[in-house]
Amino acid sequence: LAKTTQPISMDSYEGQEVNITCSHNNIATNDYITWYQQFPSQGPRFIIQGYKTKVTNEVASLFIPADRKSSTLSLPRVSLSDTAVYYCLVGDSMNSGYSTLTFGKGTMLLVSP
Amino acid sequence: EPEVTQTPSHQVTQMGQEVILRCVPISNHLYFYWYRQILGQKVEFLVSFYNNEISEKSEIFDDQFSVERPDGSNFTLKIRSTKLEDSAMYFCASSPQGYYGELFFGEGSRLTVL
Q1: Which terminus has fewer CB within 10 Å in chain A: N or C?
Q2: B53-57 and B109-113 as β-strands: parallel, antiparallel, unpaired?
Q3: Which residues pair with A35 in a beta bridge?
Q4: How far apart are CA A80 and CA A110, in angstroms?
Q5: B90 at A interface, C-beta within 8 A
Q6: Chain B interface, mutation test: which of A98, A100, A103, most B Cβ atoms within 10 Å?
Q7: H helices within chain A, ranges in order?
Q8: Does B105 touch chain A (CB under 8 A)?
Q9: Is the dihedral of CA A83, A85, A87, A93 positive or negative?
Q10: Which residue of B has its CA nearest to A100?
């Protein structure tokens, strides 16, 4: 299982770009990197997924260097409503199953006015 | 936007009682999951379900737990004899693909065992 390490918390202000980095030194060849967001008392919500290089969607970008030992979730121009816990998951659900996709403690992002 | 719905939103039960948590996955999804989150702790995988059978389960998913898809829309989690440590938020999720891609989570059912 690829273990992930993220900062416990981060603080930002409205309008700033936030970058959350996740370390996954023992990522396996078939592993994908997936980020979820969770608000209090709600289910996690998928943000973005990638395998290598850069992936961008309407809410975030995911940067993955060539060695894939880390990844960075980039949230452009955060707002107060982006205050949440962000989880980095690394695994190969296709071959190794969903039980291998474990939610860690995540990064608590607090956005202030 | 289609969503996963769960009922009840909150259930309080006595230790030893049976509990059934219900989920209606997104209609064209084929893969279904239950996760749980004890207050202040991690989201933990319990079980995945495809083609009317369990495809994976974690160590948490012991003989006290069972899942069922009794009709074409509902997906249920049953806890036969609840324990205090079963108190948690239980999340149902579904996905169209079953691998990679996005899991769509419901809002959760909070179970309190007294």
Answers
A1: C
A2: unpaired
A3: A48, A88
A4: 8
A5: no
A6: A98
A7: 93-96
A8: yes
A9: negative
A10: B45
Q: In this model, does residue B83 exceed pLDDT 60?
A: yes
- A101 contact B CB<8A: yes
Which of B42, B55, B102 lies at the smallest CB-CB distance from A104? B42
- Tens place of pLDDT per residue across chain A (113 aa): 568 999 999 999 999 999 999 999 988 888 889 999 999 889 999 999 999 999 999 999 999 999 999 999 999 999 999 999 999 998 876 666 666 677 888 999 999 99
Q: Is A94 on the interface with B (CB under 8 A)?
A: yes
State which amino acid sits at residue A76: P
CB-CB neighbours of A65 under 10 Å: 11
Decide if A93 and B89 are in contact by the 8 Å CB cutoff.
Answer: no
Can you tell me the distance from the alpha carbon of A41 to that of B70, in angstroms, rounded to the nearest whole number? 27
